[in-house]
Specification:
This protein has about 425 residues and is mainly alpha-helical. The protein has two domains: about 1-255, Ferritin, core subunit, four-helix bundle (Ferritin, Up-down Bundle); about 280-425, Ferritin. The protein has twelve helices and no strands. Helix 10 (about 310-335) packs antiparallel against helix 12. The chain is globular and about 60 Å long. It starts with 10 loop residues before the first helix and ends in a 10-residue tail after the last helix. This is Iminophenyl-pyruvate dimer synthase domain-containing protein. It holds the Pfam family Ferritin-like.
Length: about 425
Amino acid sequence: MTEPPIVIEHREHVWYLLVQASQLEHMIMCQYLFAEFSLKADGLTEEQQAAVDRWRQELHGIAVQEMLHLALVANLMSAIGAAPTFGRPNFPQSCGAFPPSIQLRLLPFGEAALAHFLYLERPEGMKRHDAAEFISCAPPPEPIAAGEIFPRAQEFATVGHLYRGIKDGLTALVAKYGEEQVFCGSPQAQATPELFRWPEMVAVTDLASACAAIDEIIEQGEGAQGAWQDAHYGRFLKIWEEYHALRAADPAFEPAHPALGAFTRQPFDVGEPQPLIGDPRTLALAELCNLAYEAILWLLTRFFTHTDESEEELDVLISAAITTMAAVLRPLGTELCRRPAGPAHPGRTAGPAFEMYYLMDNVVPWREAAWTVLIERLRQIAERCASHAATDPVIAAASEQVTAVADALDAARAKAASGITAPGGSA
């Protein structure tokens, strides 16, 4: 398959494409998490359950790497003077935020989800069909003509194609304007391997490090130079083969709950009506799940757009985001996939829709105000969890974790205010 070249003539073209890359990595990660949460933990044969447990670990590992990709894109944006963003459109996305060849929807683990994941992760140039649920509904955008000053959507059929276009564009801009001009962002704004606790994390300060960050994304997703066996594409292909072997042995094998990406209310940016949760107890759990997700995004936003935080405070922010994801969002989302969606959806369970309630932007740049807002929101989530904790052990455990996260941020804020740790980490 031949894909049209991506045109980059100035910084805003790169900026626009990096925003799209950020939203795409974010939404792909949510799709993988949804499929992971939907997998069953009982009711299967020993062989089937062992396979499902392997798939759960694989999906979780791939989703975590998508989080790394999102962080690498944030570093690329900071490096060229753009503010990293964790906002995105709501699901589903058919023909709007991305080219019509890229469509996104929350699906429980199964035939359709695996076909869709393989399609998204396929190496550039490989022909593969998306799942039947995804039908192209619009022609591709017209190529950008020479001299166009305003950035706009461009066609890319694969994730690898998008990133190679960004890499080529950055190379051309450096040749045109010079490295110092293109990479004008502060090195202090970069997430480092030490701060982000990821050896694969690349701090982007020049063209070489930008290319290294992009290569990391491409290699983990589709594989380097055709070696896709250990990349996301190859890992999904192995799951696909195991899944079909188990289905051939037992046609009744259903590894996942019939989860539905149901909303608590109609999303503000999706035209067609979306499924809504009708069961009151499920609705309360879904609201808490969405609040935890929102808190993670705010914590990451502050981490990647920090101002005068010390390294100790940055460590508190990233620890808070990781804890909230692992100890709050994951158990709540998993439980949600086991709860009934409501009378309007017989036989279906709910699932986290990862709702965006509004156009998310950054909080104010001043540290004290930003931390006050973060702590206040975490306290609200903890209080809301506590109101349901007596009747729901999953929510009770989440309440304790959110409270601990809020306490950690509060302690770090108090320490900074007392002058024990000054901005930059000096005593």
